[in-house]
Amino acid sequence: MKKFYRCVKCQTIYPFNRDILTCPKHSKYYGYLTLIYDYKNVKLGNDKNVFKKYKNLFPLEEFEINFNEQKTPLIKLNKFGVKHELSNLYVKDESKNPTGSFKDKESLFAINMALKWEVSNIFVVSSGNAAISTAAYAQKAGLKYTSYVPKNLSVGKRFLIGLYGGLVKEINGNYEEIYRKAIDMPFPGWNCTPGLNPIKEEGIKVIGFEIFEEIGVPDVIIAPCGNGTLLFGLFKAFKELSFLGVTTKMPKFLGVQIRGASPLKSAFEQQEDFVKLNDIPSSIAEGIVAEESYSSPKVMYALEDTGGEIIEVSDSEITQAIKEIIKTESIIPEPTSAVAYAAIEKVNINKNDKVVLINTAGGQKNLKEIMQLLIKAS
Amino acid sequence: MKKFYRCVKCQTIYPFNRDILTCPKHSKYYGYLTLIYDYKNVKLGNDKNVFKKYKNLFPLEEFEINFNEQKTPLIKLNKFGVKHELSNLYVKDESKNPTGSFKDKESLFAINMALKWEVSNIFVVSSGNAAISTAAYAQKAGLKYTSYVPKNLSVGKRFLIGLYGGLVKEINGNYEEIYRKAIDMPFPGWNCTPGLNPIKEEGIKVIGFEIFEEIGVPDVIIAPCGNGTLLFGLFKAFKELSFLGVTTKMPKFLGVQIRGASPLKSAFEQQEDFVKLNDIPSSIAEGIVAEESYSSPKVMYALEDTGGEIIEVSDSEITQAIKEIIKTESIIPEPTSAVAYAAIEKVNINKNDKVVLINTAGGQKNLKEIMQLLIKAS
After folding, report:
1. Which residue of A has its CA nearest to B139?
2. Residue B66 falls within a domain, yes or no?
């Protein structure tokens, strides 16, 4: 099956290989490239297993390194739905992945692609779920892995990355500065950072195809956004289904960011490819606090194409949402993931719309933090 | 489909209802009863979904309260297997259940059975995974739930049970004393404690059927044992498959307990239904440290029937196993679950035997503890 990279902005075509990550006509710091398939010749299988059925829409068919990943559950939110006057509200619970977050979908694809392309050394600029997930898959694959992180990385996170065999290298600066410094290094390895590496969104498509297999095309999908890889990957899954003529309907995409730290919202309002914010606030949803989003050009495309938008939520709204979803559905999201539940209150959704929100990661590993939040709020 | 309870010891038959939990001819503190189906008339379906295919072998066909539970992954342990000279070693990763442990399989069945039988008030004597899991399902079901616990329950566990809407009641004494006191109370509710309530092992059968669907009958199954519900439930799954004539082979069952806190080993050696130990040591595998095992009569039956045995492991062996499984397979088990990996070293298994060990729960929520263990051991 023929595949190539295409720039979402200038449509320039590039070959699909390890040496190209983003469009040199724009910026080396932003993800402009996306993988394009020979859609006319794509055939879907009959298998119930998404990896088999959709193999023509994936960059590789074999996953040598895997945890025998299973379908994540799509859970109907009955009580929480009633509370928000929605009768078809679902959550796709990505906390059931190998290391407990949706990042494992990205890692499965990126690490196996790295093996196929004989990359021996990879890096990610992240101190959160992406760093942890990449480390786990890289260790299993025997790849050398480095995580570039800010100086104040918590002992627990450092320990976890190290446990999975990853190197942790500290660089001065905030996330955005570290990100640029790492890219500017002479030989830091293959860049697996979400937002830049186009393989990552290919893994996310698995989530979209699984949703489609279970309930068809939702009316609305609500996704937490840092870089926005999750939102764009989901969009790409449904867009490719429409290229194939399997459906004509597209979901409306609602991305969720933190009030005051929502570069995607600013970019969308200002009709820019990307926006860099200054003096952003801190937030309990630390995984998506962002000055800029490296998938921004792609997210803009997805929002414009589907009439979507970016919703902003505050810490108190997140805390309220955590409380509510635990008490109604016994689901504990991590605060970064809880923004999706918080966003429900802030948008107009029709009562009978089929709505899917993405639980990006669970809160079991953040229990102490959640305990403090809830005690403070009560 | 006709069903009844039968005592594993004296074979007395009892009706299948909410008012009977154990055989009054023996002890009210031990689980003697197990659910018997009309095996001659059981028909298996063709569905790939275990809940549908095996519905005639489950106490109920509808699970009103559920998290849309998916099949847990059976992961081939390549590198860890090579290290232990085993070429067909697998782990069934039960950490991917809704609250992160195999106890969710038990809760799914027990809570839905409680709803069907119009029980409004349930209790469990546990301060660990069973308490947390039962709380999560009970809250979703709107059932009143109490966890009877020892006085020194950690703040984190108490918080988690409370978060899921459960009451925590402290009783003086160690686990075994509290267990008896709770059973002796006038109206403590329906007893969902693992080891006593026979519904629990029915849920465990799901794990067995899933293994069977994927790789047939293993030669060896290795399961951590506190009460031993897990071991007996797995045994029952394969035993029922043999009643149905689907297979004639049975796996050999290896239960794993803590050295010096292994009442099942003592009972097996002494040919007793159960044994009560004194002055047991503490262990990092706190979930299975036991003076006595309430499923003991059933476990004895399973071991005798299959030529199985109970393996003892020590804390240093557990720590070593945690290190090894993380470094080779990027799997982080909780210490209680890690006893299964530690046991591999201690038994004679043929190189090509198909071996499945059960990862009962993940270590993500015990990271601080695991960090301390590994630092101390290094």
Report:
1. A330
2. no
Whether residue B96 is found in the same domain as residue B241: yes
Q: Please check whether residues A45 and A87 belong to one and the same domain.
A: no
- The answer on B96 and B35 residing in a single domain is no
Question: pLDDT, tens digit, for every residue of A12-61?
Answer: 999 999 999 999 999 999 999 999 999 999 999 999 899 999 999 999 99
Which of A70, A76, A160 is opposite residue B70, by nearest beta carbon? A70
Residue A354 pLDDT > 90: yes
Q: Which of residues 283-322 of B touch A (CB under 8 A)?
A: none
pLDDT (0 to 100) of residue A189: 92
A65 assigned to some structural domain: no
Given this model, what pLDDT does residue B70 score?
96
A213 has a chain B CB within 8 A of its CB: no
pLDDT at position A1 over 90: no
Q: What is the DSSP string of A104-172?
A: HHHHHHHHHHHHHTT--EEEEE-SSHHHHHHHHHHHHHT-EEEEEEETT--HHHHHHHHHTT-EEEEES
pLDDT at B157: 87
Residues of A in contact with B156 (CB under 8 A): 367-368, 371
Q: Residue A175: pLDDT above 90?
A: no
Q: Please state the domain count of chain B.
A: 3
Range of the domain at B26: 3-43
Quick check: B100 and A364 CB within 8 A?
yes
Cβ contacts of A18 within 8 Å, gap of 6 or more = A113, A114, A117, A119, A190
- Are A173 and A322 contained in the same domain? no
Q: Is the dihedral of CA B161, B165, B166, B169 positive or negative?
A: positive
The domain that contains B321 carries what CATH number?
3.40.50.1100
Q: Do B156 and A100 touch (CB under 8 A)?
A: no
